[in-house]
């Protein structure tokens, strides 16, 4: 046996030992596992492993706090990303970073401080890059084109376009046809006009500036030193962002992940903030499963 | 790690045509340049044959990957997939031309038009 083998073996064994940790962090770990179960991902050689570990950590308190299991999840998520690159959505990358952060934090000397700091930076940087794309790099966001076209053509936003934007079903259908792309250089003799009520233009403008400003505030609240930003502001901005955005954006998995990461920043005394995060998690779940905008439209007749 | 991946994504979006919605740069919902407004046209050529082809179901994932990032290696994989499929049906093919396009919208009228992103010509060996 080599002289260093017992050290390596000890190090590996440590990764498979459950760590004692403050009970309030269990909420963040459990919600992470629930988010993984609600949105299974990956090909056949990835999905069952992630689902199995997610189920295991929910059932077993020891598994919940075992670093190796979270590291294995992170590895499988990375395989999922590589398998059909570049098709993975951005929150899949964030899941990989977050589960790796959980694994590494469980091995850190100060679990809570490490996890909370990592959560803050992951959230802050993700939001900062989102703002960079919207405000600087993208040529068609701040001028309103993104929301104008998305509200008119994306079926997932149809109900919002009708309910808030004031479009009828017939106008939506006509707009989708009018916005069908022509080959480069071609032009119609009588191009169809696009119907855009004032309410829809206002909705597009408010959505455009509202989301970029909200994301900027969330980013700043996360990356500025904690002593400069009260915790209630960080938590409040993140929860408001999720409740507003995921009422319309069809990416509930991303919302759940952001909320889970927010929970990890709560202290043992922040019982009410943890409850607020759990409530927001459930609200986003309802957003994704209940066609609320369609129901409101039906009620209005 | 997030910064490294996101920075690489920005670079690839600028240089390799990667859509801002993918690649881990958090550019989703920031632009109309995404998969729903990108596509791939396939043109097959051989002696006495020149025809365009819709993306068959078996190649949809490859086509989606190439449309989202029209890099040489992804386009080559798609072209090789097209050739393999034609050979399975005993159809001759000597050249596969792939054109990746995206839809652009006029800032004021929203008039939509297709604009080519990249054309890749694959000579069957």
SSE layout:
The complex is a heterodimer of chains A (about 300) and B (about 120).
Chain A: H1 5-15, H2 23-38, H3 47-59, H4 61-64, H5 67-83, H6 90-106, H7 111-137, H8 145-153, H9 158-163, H10 169-178, H11 198-223, H12 231-245, H13 252-263, H14 271-289, H15 292-300
Helix pairs in contact in A: 2-3, 2-13, 3-5, 5-6, 6-7, 6-13, 7-11, 8-11, 11-12, 12-13, 12-14, 13-14
Chain B: H1 2-15, E1 38-46, E2 49-53, H2 60-68, H3 72-88, E3 95-105, E4 112-123
Antiparallel strand pairs in B: 1-2, 1-3, 3-4
Helix pairs in contact in B: 2-3
Rg over CA atoms of chain A = 22 Å
Overall body shape of chain A? elongated
Main sheet: strand order of chain B = 2-1-3-4
In which range does the helix fraction of chain B lie? 25-40%
Number of strands of chain B: 4
Number of helices of chain B: 3
DSSP strand count of chain A:
0
- What string, H for helix and E for strand, traces the elements of chain B in order? HEEHHEE
Sheet having the most strands of chain A? none
Overall, the morphology of chain B is globular
- Which percent range describes the beta-strand content of chain B? 25-35%
Distance between the termini of chain B: 40 Å
Query: What's the mean pLDDT score of chain A?
Result: 90
Main beta sheet strand tally, sense and closure of chain B: 4 strands, antiparallel
């Amino acid at each position: 046996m080599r002289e260093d083998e017992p050290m390596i073996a000890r190090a590996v064994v440590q990764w498979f030992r459950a760590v004692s940790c403050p009970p309030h962090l269990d909420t963040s770990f459990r919600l992470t596992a629930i988010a993984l179960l609600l949105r299974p991902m990956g090909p056949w050689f990835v999905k069952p492993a992630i689902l199995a570990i997610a189920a295991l950590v929910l059932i077993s308190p020891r598994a919940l706090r075992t670093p190796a299991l979270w590291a294995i999840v992170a590895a499988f998520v990375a395989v999922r990303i590589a398998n059909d690159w570049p098709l993975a959505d951005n929150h899949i990358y964030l899941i990989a970073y977050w589960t790796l952060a959980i694994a590494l934090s469980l091995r850190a000397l100060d679990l809570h401080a490490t996890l909370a700091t990592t959560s803050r930076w992951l959230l802050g940087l993700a939001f900062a890059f989102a703002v960079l794309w919207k405000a600087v790099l993208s040529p068609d966001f701040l001028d309103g084109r993104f929301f104008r076209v998305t509200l008119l053509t994306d079926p997932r936003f149809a109900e919002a376009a009708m309910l808030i934007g004031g479009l009828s079903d017939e106008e939506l259908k006509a707009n989708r046809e009018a916005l069908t792309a022509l080959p480069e250089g071609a032009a119609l003799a009588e191009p169809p006009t696009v119907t855009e009520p004032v309410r829809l233009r206002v909705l597009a403008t408010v959505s455009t500036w509202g989301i970029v400003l909200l994301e900027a505030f969330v980013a700043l609240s996360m990356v500025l030193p904690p002593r400069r930003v009260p915790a209630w502001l960080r938590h409040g901005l993140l929860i408001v962002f999720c409740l507003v955005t995921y009422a319309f954006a069809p990416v509930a998995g991303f919302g759940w992940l952001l909320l889970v990461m927010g929970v990890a920043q709560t202290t043992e005394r922040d019982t009410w903030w943890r409850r607020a995060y759990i409530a927001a998690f459930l609200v986003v779940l309802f957003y994704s499963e209940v066609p609320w905008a369609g129901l409101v439209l039906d009620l209005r007749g | 790690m997030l910064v490294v991946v996101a920075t690489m994504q920005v670079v690839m979006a600028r240089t390799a045509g990667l859509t801002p919605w993918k690649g881990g740069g958090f550019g989703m919902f920031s632009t109309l340049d995404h998969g729903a407004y990108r596509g791939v046209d396939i043109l097959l050529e051989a002696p006495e044959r020149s025809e365009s082809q819709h993306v068959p179901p078996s190649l949809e994932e490859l086509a989606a990957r190439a449309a989202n990032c029209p890099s040489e290696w992804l386009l080559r994989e798609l072209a090789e997939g097209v050739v393999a499929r034609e050979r399975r049906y005993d159809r001759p093919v000597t050249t596969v031309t792939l054109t990746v396009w995206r839809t652009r919208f006029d800032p004021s009228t929203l008039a939509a038009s297709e604009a080519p992103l990249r054309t890749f010509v694959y000579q069957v060996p």
